[in-house]
């Protein structure tokens, strides 16, 4: 399974999201490959992804995708990440 | 990998600013004062928010101001700015903001290393309000788990 953590410039926020998504997946005991991406590369990065994690602000920039787009409000809140990933992947 | 050093010049507490641009500007000024960035980096951080919106407000009250690596990044750096009165960035859930972290990195890879450490620190939800209320630089460093840049490990300039 592939998950994309998306931010505007592909550093910083997406890296934090990637780290915390991996921690949330560990809690859920789900194996997945989490990739950090920026808006410019999301089409390619998300082509074979099941889930895109991002901020609500960036959703309009994603365009058409077959992946589930999950909006994360607090990138540091592992409980929020676990709950939302569990719904999407469970 | 630990967080980059946080010299006195990289910390500005209890500032009064009119809007998010001035708040990001203060985080950029702090990075420049600390020697991490040169002219233009602050404007690039503002441009990221103009282009992509307030997604840099990644938790309630906290903005992570940053831009891509570039020639205006002299060395990796972190700055911390707190506001006397919070300002809105336009985020639907996490406004208003009273803590701004400024981030400068030289390469993407290095960045991923030390943001993992940022994630460790901020997974504790009490840290943002504690930073917002921090009375001095020593408290900020202690909350972030960064050593004060004096003594034998000091590589930064002396506090003013």
Map the helices and strands.
The complex is a heterodimer of chains A (90) and B (160).
Chain A: E1 2-7, H1 13-28, E2 33-38, H2 42-45, E3 51-54, H3 59-62, E4 68-71, H4 78-89
Helix pairs in contact in A: 1-4
Chain B: E1 11-15, H1 20-33, H2 41-52, E2 62-66, E3 77-87, E4 97-104, H3 108-122, H4 127-132, H5 137-144
What would a concise description of this structure say?
The complex is a heterodimer of chains A (90) and B (160). Chain A has 4 helices and 4 strands; from the N terminus they run βαβαβαβα.
Provide a descriptive summary of the structure in words:
The complex is a heterodimer of chains A (90) and B (160). Chain A has 90 residues and is an alpha/beta fold. Chain A has a single domain (2-80), classed as Rossmann fold (3-Layer(aba) Sandwich). Helix content of chain A is 40%, strand content 22%. Chain A is built from four helices and four strands. Chain A has helices at residues 13-28, 42-45, 59-62, 78-89; strands at residues 2-7, 33-38, 51-54, 68-71. Chain A has a four-stranded parallel beta sheet with strand order 2-1-3-4, with helices on one face. In chain A, strand 3 (51-54), helix 3 (59-62) and strand 4 (68-71) form a beta-alpha-beta unit. In chain A, helix 1 packs across helix 4 (78-89). The longest helix of chain A has 16 residues, at 13-28. Chain A starts with a strand and ends with a helix. Residues 151-160 of chain B have low confidence and may be disordered. Chain B has 160 residues and is α/β, with parallel strands linked by helices. Helix content of chain B is 34%, strand content 18%. A four-stranded mixed beta sheet of chain B has the order 1-3-4-2. Chain B has helices at 20-33, 41-52, 108-122, 127-132, 137-144; strands at residues 11-15, 62-66, 77-87, 97-104.
């Amino acid at each position: 399974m592939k998950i994309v953590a998306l931010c505007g410039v592909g550093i910083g926020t997406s890296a934090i999201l990637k780290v915390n998504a991996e921690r949330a997946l560990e809690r859920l005991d789900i194996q997945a490959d989490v990739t950090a991406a920026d808006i410019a590369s999301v089409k390619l990065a998300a082509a074979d992804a099941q889930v895109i994690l991002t901020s609500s602000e960036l959703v309009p920039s994603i365009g058409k995708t077959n992946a589930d787009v999950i909006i994360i409000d607090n990138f540091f809140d592992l409980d929020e990440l676990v709950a939302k990933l569990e719904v999407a992947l469970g | 990998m630990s967080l980059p050093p946080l010299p006195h010049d990289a910390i500005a507490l209890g500032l009064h600013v009119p809007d998010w641009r001035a708040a990001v500007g203060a985080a950029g000024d702090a990075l420049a004062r600390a020697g991490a960035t040169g002219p233009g980096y602050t404007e690039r951080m503002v441009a990221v928010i103009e282009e992509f919106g307030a997604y840099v407000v990644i938790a309630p009250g906290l903005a992570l101001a940053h831009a891509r690596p570039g020639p205006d990044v002299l060395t990796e750096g972190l700055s911390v700015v707190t506001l006397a009165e919070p300002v809105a960035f336009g985020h639907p859930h996490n406004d208003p903001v009273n803590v701004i972290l400024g981030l400068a990195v030289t390469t993407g890879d290095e960045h991923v290393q030390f943001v993992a450490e940022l994630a460790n620190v901020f997974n504790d939800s009490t840290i943002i309000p504690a930073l917002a209320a921090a009375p001095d630089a020593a408290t900020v460093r202690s909350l972030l788990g960064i050593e004060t840049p004096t003594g034998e490990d000091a590589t930064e300039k002396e506090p003013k």
